[in-house]
């Protein structure tokens, strides 16, 4: 067995001596246990998850779906960039959801603006779908569709070959389609990227880098 157990452990004793787990000598990817737990991945607002070490190729088409729950009005959801300008990015800025795409000719943004500033940051689950089809981009939040015109109709492919960063990204990593540096605080679940007939559900416990991210449980809804 090479992976950690997704569970809570307590009252551990060795030879009758109670172990002090409140002040460990060292700690890695261990969080407190929650009284009420929901399925999903908890982001504590300090880090990120890095997926697909060998690089993810967005190219002409990609469909991203996920569910998120947060009480913060700012936070990076997802970014895939290249060393050049090609990139995609999903983020929450001032309570709005922004989906940015740059196919090489310039950044295009589609924005979902809820009626109330905090209506997406209410600690409840919200469904997001971001779609890039050649030069067309759209966002669907809780069933509400928004899209935008793209003047760069000849430019159709985002030629990326870098990891997928979720919930934030390292300070030394360039992200051409994200404006926020704020790490996401809250819970994410059911992250799926679809290209044509190929659908991939991402398991955060398989990320090659996890910082401030706890892949197997979310604390119960914040009030």
TrEMBL record:
Q: Which InterPro entries match?
A: ConA-like_dom_sf, Laminin_G, Neurexin-related_CASP
Organism lineage reads as:
Eukaryota, Metazoa, Chordata, Craniata, Vertebrata
Domain Laminin G, first and last residues per copy: 38-218
Report the protein name in the record. LAMA1 protein
Could you name the domain of life of the organism this protein comes from?
A: Eukaryota
Q: Which SUPFAM superfamilies does its entry note?
A: Concanavalin A-like lectins/glucanases
Q: Name one Pfam family in it.
A: Laminin_G_1
